[in-house]
Structure formats: structure tokens, C-alpha cells
Amino acid sequence: MNVPVAQLSTLHLLGRFSEAFTGAERELLDIRRLLEGRRPVKLWSDVPPHPSYAGQGIATIQPFAQQFPRGGTLLIAGVHMRPGIWLKYAGFEKIILFYNLANHAQLFASMEALRDSTGLDPELVFVSRMLQLSVGLPGRIARSLMDLQPFLAVADKRFAHVAERPFTVGRVSRDAPDKHHLEDPALYRMLASRGLRVRIMGGTCLAPALQGVEGVELLPAGAESAADFYRSLDAFFYRTGASTEAYGRVVVEAMAAGLPVVAHARGGYAEVMEQGVSGLLVQSQEEAYDAVMRLAGDAGLCRRMGEAGRAQALAVHGPEATQREMAFYLGFGAAS
Fold first, then answer.
1. Could you tell me the CATH number of the domain that includes residue 125?
2. 3-class DSSP state for residue 171?
3. Is the pTM of this model over 0.70?
4. Are residues 164 and 310 in the same domain?
């Protein structure tokens, strides 16, 4: 049964919008957009937002100015945040905690802090089955909500100018060392030495190892729109350092853009990839190099894998999957 918008309590979305390119906060923007006109939604940040979020209507929590979310449901986009003393006075009906960063100590600390401050047990939402199994707690498994349309449009046009450039492999991430594997610079050097072009958006942190290497381009996070960046690539590569990628929405975006993906086998995104069909999952430096070079030498394989990846991305994050997730956000909080 559809409940009128006026009878639904507010869904407060709390993130840390301090950086220009963060998956958790981008998901909050997508949730707000998808729910527009269907339930009241308010975006909050626990720190002043980055200038790139100007005009997005994100309010900064200021407890002593009495500016913080009150009533309704609070959705916290990750355990990297530490909501403060204002929680005691917020009067929430429900708290939802996204577990999207593999740090069990922070998870348990956040759950205890929320329980102590509000008397509520937070409902956990896991971005991958891998993450839920690793901690052994009950909760929903919900893939990251995403708007695939800009990336699907890339897939329709991407092959038009491939012959005019060297085979180009790249990746997108936050511009932070922990988002990159220690062996990535050596891999990029090897690929560039074979005539491939390498583009890394969110890669200026790799400058000490790669600055000036011909064929390697290091861009700040957010230097281009993600869709434009994917349009410049022929393949997508992704692996992280010591931390395990809980899901990795950029991998799914690249799949939706029709890009063949080479990614480390350790990551939540592996749950939505079929090895050898919609992507290539690798374990070692040697496997990563061989996989990228295999794609560089086989345009037919690139196209087949890109098409299969696009279909898989749509199956997991397309309109039907999105509507099923929307039912969760619309199914609670009816005012009495």
C-alpha cells in the first residue's frame, strides 16, 4: 500500500562529505535523488562539505547551534563517522547503519555508541555478503544504490574512437595511498613500456613513483566526470592495498560503461562478476599484467566481456533492482 509523502517521517542521511570522490557519500546523493517526491529526505554531514558538493543542500551538523537531525529515521553511511552528543536529543524512531568499510572494531564501537546514546539497536545493512560473513552479524545485504544511466550511455558510444588511440587502461578511486596496491606503480610502468596508455583518476598520491613516466597520466579525484573518464578507457583495472574493498561501486560503473574489467579477486564486487565472462579476477601481479595484455591484444574479447559486464551491472543495479531497494526506504516511518 502506498503511503502519502506527507504521512512519512523524514529520512536523515548522514555522511562525511569532506572529499570530492567517496562511494558512500555518492550513494547518499543517489538515495536522495531516487526518493525525491516519494518521502521527505534530508542530507547531513558531520564535517563541513567539500566545495564540490555546493548546491546539494547538505547541512553541516552543529550541535551547539541546535542544528542536527531530529525525529524520523537516521541512516549513517559508514562506521568511519562518530556521531556526537546530539544523538541523545535527536529522538529517532529508527537507526540504519551501513557497513561498507571492513573494520570490525569500528563497527562494534559504533553499534555500542549508538545504543548507549539512543537506546536503539541499529539495523545493519551490508554492501556485500562477504562483509556480512566476515563479521557474522544479522542484517540486510543491499548492493549500493546507483544511477547507471550516465554509464550506460558511455557504453553506447565508447567504441567509436578506439582505433585513434593506444589501448588505454585506467581506474577511479579516492586519491589516497590506501586505495592503491603497493605493486600498482610497477604494473603501470610495465604496461606503459609495452605501449599502453594508463590513466589513473585519484592517482596523484602515486606521483613519487610515477611522475614523468611516459604513457602514465595521474589525475586528481574528480578531475573529470566519471562517465567522461570511462569514455577515455578501453579497460578498467582495480585493486586496493591492505584494506579489502567492501563492494567497489566504481567497478560496477565501469561494467555498466561496457568496459572489460580486471580486478583483484578479493573484494565485494567479485560477487557480481563471472570469472572470464563479465570480468577477469586476478590474484597476483603476474596475473594482473597477463590479463590486461590479453585484453589489449583481443578486441573481440574486450567487446564480449564489456557487453557481458554491462548486462550483469543492469541485473544487479538496473531499474528493477533499484525499485526493490526503494521498497525498503519507503516501507517504514509512516506518521501516526
1. 3.40.50
2. strand
3. yes
4. yes
